[in-house]
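S.,

As promised, the zinc ion run. Input:
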Amino acid sequence: MKRFGALEAGGTKMVCAVGDETGRILDRVSLPTLTPAETMPAMIDYFRDKGISALGIGCFGPVDLNRASPTYGYITSTPKLSWQNYPIVEKFREALGIPVGFDTDVNAAALGEATWGCTRDVQNSIYITVGTGVGVGVIIDGKPYHGMMHPEGGHVLLNRHPDDPMVGSGCPFHDNCMEGLAAGPSLEKRWGVKGAELSGRKEVWELEAYYIGQAIVDYMMVLSPERIILGGGVTHQECLLPMVRREVEKQLGGYLRCPALENLDTYIVPVSLNDNQGAMGAIKLAMEELGVYN
Ligand code: ADP
Ligand code: ZN
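Predicted complex:
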């Protein structure tokens, strides 16, 4: 069986893994994200002797996914300055001499779930992560959706709750976007302590569910996903998912009628691949780049 490399490229860590065409992860290391000059050689060393046929990268963004563009495969305007305008795909292709598949981190995670996880039975799904930031991966007709660039669902604009005590926003670009109101750092900005220390505070999670619910209703109206996966560090709060489902039901206002929505417990679901969804999605990207279909 062929082996594939997977890279989950994040702003704080680079998770490098090797897997096979069933999505099984055989080996993995995590390296801190320093500058390209420091981190690229370490990653290339890891992948070099692993016998992989192709590499897939799920990358923090923004990235250029347009194959017709001269900067295809670049990390573009990231706030991580040393990685700005960095041709990550080309560098790996040159160093390893194998095909390199490329997409956003959240599209890769959405693809992992859609290939081997809880959305494998549907063709249209979204994967939302609420963590240090908010990201949304979109699968349409079985393929990660890019459009003009790639979706930036973390920055949809929301109505601020009139009782929200937060001054300002967690996003430097927008006063009222999903990420600025609901990501982990925004929780800390609003309540003064980290999200993990806010368990049992009803008002905290009601407000959080209000924002996540609003964003989900927006995604539903525009993309019409057949199922929605909600993950990320903030969703480790076990009370949150049921509250989000209730909020979605409330904010839909009875408008959409569809069999998939009869039970929101099976419509809005947690991740199913034990935090391997990103790496498994990257393996799938590698397989597709090589022309291997499972
Ligand atoms: P990243 O988004 O960087 O990949 P995570 O998805 O793990 O990482 O999200 C990290 C964020 O989640 C941090 O802001 C952290 O405070 C928050 N977080 C982690 N655990 C919890 C928890 N149990 N409850 C609420 N927030 C949490
Ligand atoms: Zn924003």
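The mean pLDDT is 97. Helices lie at 36-48, 88-96, 105-116, 178-182, 184-191, 202-223, 240-252, 277-290.

- D.
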